[in-house]
Amino acid sequence: MQVNEVVAYIQARKDRFVADLREWLAIPSISGDPAYAGDVRRSAEWLAGHLSEQGFPTVEIWETQGHPAVYAEWPAEDPDAPAVVVYGHHDVQPVEPLEEWDTDPFKPVEKGDRLIGRGASDDKGQVFFHTLGLRAGLAASGRAAPPVTIKLLVEGEEESGSVHFADLLHAHRDRLACDAVVISDTTMWSADVPSMCTGMRGLTEAEVTLRGPSRDLHSGSFGGAVPNPLQAMAVLMSALHDADGRVTLPGFYDDVVPLTDEERDLFARLPFNEDEWLQSAGDSRAAHGEKGYTTLERIWARPTAEINGMWGGHTGPGGKTIVPHEAHAKVSFRLVAGQDPRKVQQAFEAWVEEHTPNGVEAEVRMQPGGVRPCFSPIDSPSVKAARRAMERAFGTEVLFTREGGSGPEADLADVLEAPLVFVAVGLNGDRIHATNEKVEIPLLLKGAEAAAYLWEELAVALR
Amino acid sequence: MQVNEVVAYIQARKDRFVADLREWLAIPSISGDPAYAGDVRRSAEWLAGHLSEQGFPTVEIWETQGHPAVYAEWPAEDPDAPAVVVYGHHDVQPVEPLEEWDTDPFKPVEKGDRLIGRGASDDKGQVFFHTLGLRAGLAASGRAAPPVTIKLLVEGEEESGSVHFADLLHAHRDRLACDAVVISDTTMWSADVPSMCTGMRGLTEAEVTLRGPSRDLHSGSFGGAVPNPLQAMAVLMSALHDADGRVTLPGFYDDVVPLTDEERDLFARLPFNEDEWLQSAGDSRAAHGEKGYTTLERIWARPTAEINGMWGGHTGPGGKTIVPHEAHAKVSFRLVAGQDPRKVQQAFEAWVEEHTPNGVEAEVRMQPGGVRPCFSPIDSPSVKAARRAMERAFGTEVLFTREGGSGPEADLADVLEAPLVFVAVGLNGDRIHATNEKVEIPLLLKGAEAAAYLWEELAVALR
Ligand SMILES: [Zn+2]
Ligand SMILES: [Zn+2]
């Protein structure tokens, strides 16, 4: 395969690529608003038609209890070749407040190198570069089929929580059997600093209720002589972290896959501006977290405990001098590679039980399940292969990031039992989920180029 | 003065006393409900008429911005004799839920020794025994005027917060000039264990707001790397007490008048049943408070800090994985003898400022003013005199209690600059503020007897 041929193929089809993408972007496939259900279906149908047109031998609409997904398969010539699932989504976020858009979110506009419209980056644009890349690879290699079997799965409910996605995966588990999963729904550090995500934090959530007296008591008559559940809650919640910002649950860090020196070095090479980051964090006044880790390490690769909500007693205007009868808190844990949500749940329940003072009764309600963290080590064969493809496309070293939150990726890893590889060219500045979402067209073309090289790299790595 | 003559006088007029009280109790002087404003005035007028009838040379209705008070004066013969203000109130609590009353709250009923009706104990009955006692004392001594000048002040807004009471005191400060204030609006330990209250806790209230980012942040993207205001609030509030249950504000205990060994001994002699007390405290599961003090000492004679309310972040159903942008808490301090609400306010503001972590902004809003604690040492001349009067009436040792909360008493002490003496015969079991309020008629008559002895005891003590 000649690099020049791949680039030449992509450049030659650039206008058509953008024109087709604009057509798709014009369909308002907002999955979170029932009023757009027909549009989400239209989006799936449009994509299915496009994929057939582009040569996918198998294209299907997969129904769910909610919005439909699109499945397309392009088998390798060699029946023993590895198979790779490519994941993306065709639904988009709502567009409110509409008056803050400079252009109609569903009338995509090109401004210089940018394409502006809802879904341009998240995730239609990033789904779209795969077909162009695949065809460029085929053209350059002169083959009729890719070196791995490609199984493109484009769901329609990601922006509304992927509610039926795990069911969908289980229903089609056999057909989705694969050796790796390529995720194209993340971002790169910046246009100048191409990067790959290697993991996402998991999650488990709990609600704690502490009960004292059977009713609110007058603090004049009883204050100072009976336990105050709010006081007990403050003590409990304050004990969840030590002075070094570490979570105090026994065994919490035992299973954590530690950051390697190499990964820390690579993180450190990202041109991170903490002041700008704090500004993006709601103008936070200072960084704060686990001692011994940088801000990026804290949000990407370290587990955390957060109080998401807390309440009890008199919360209205004015004073009410009571000892409240109960106190509540919502707590969530972000989990990283190696941690099991169920183990953390058990540890938290036991810890609350143990730390609840005499005279107060505790109840812990865990949200069932939780989200497992997902992680692909930077020295794993598929990550190394994808990195080579990205480096060939960008002509420069590709660094690594992670993401602090999670979508349906852990389901893919769990149900399909295959390693995840994140190949994406969106930017943090693409304003995804916000007004005036855009994508950089040259980066989408770089994405196509990387996708052109990806399959031969993975074919070697996964064999 | 002969004891027998006092008792004989009171017994002879017992029926008339109860009949008159029943007439007064039939007036629904609910100060908290504007619909009863006319009745509160009628109650004041009825009392004024009664006091004139009973021989008070001066009787006046004192207007306020709210409900009227009644003022009656009976000067001593000797113009140099001490003057004593007697405080009570003629308004009553609402009666809801009406269906839980066994009889009409405003159609007083005698059942055996009990008189049942709203205000029977709190506070009409306790105001009422003073006139009978005063007349019994005069009759027994054969004098036309009491040995001290008596200034009876019966307000009409106690059950709705005594909102205009301080103004009333300031307006009539000269006429209310006195050497002591007798308060008849508290309770005794029990019918078998007569006691006197010697102090009430003061109060100061604050609301604390901690601010972090300018908006709620996604805990996946930012959690673990910026300060969480709810976490900071938990740490702050948990630091308000040490492991021994003591309040950690610097200097908080510096001005506290310590309990004397004698007072602790007398408290300890009260037949206190902690299990029953816990049951009355909303079935609290355990006593809890400052180390080294009993439950009674904790609620009566030790200052406290209570979290009355706390809230922030997501408090609705389900989960929301955010780092909340702010957190709130309402805190109140009960204060005891020697403590100054303003000093505690300043200490709290400084403490919050000092203990707020980097990256979080704190705001403290104190409720202006606060309530000063009031306290009369058990060895003070007026308390000793009143105790003698009570012991003569009850024929047994009189013990001491205090109260954990406060009404307008501190205003009386502050504006009139005179010591308070609590003389009352209500019981904790009188169901004041509740349904089926009652008073024990024999205790009201004991109150009248104590009042008969009180003025000569005080005349000697205050001279
Ligand atoms: Zn997306
Ligand atoms: Zn009262």
TrEMBL record, chains A, B:
One biological process term from GO is:
proteolysis
**Annotated SUPFAM superfamilies:** Zn-dependent exopeptidases (SSF53187)
Q: List keywords of the entry alphabetically.
A: Hydrolase, Metal-binding, Protease
Single GO term (MF) = metal ion binding
The segment(s) forming the Peptidase M20 dimerisation domain are 199-359
Among InterPro entries, the record links this protein to: Cyt/Met_Dipeptidase, Peptidase_M20, Peptidase_M20_dimer
- Tell me what this protein is called: Dipeptidase
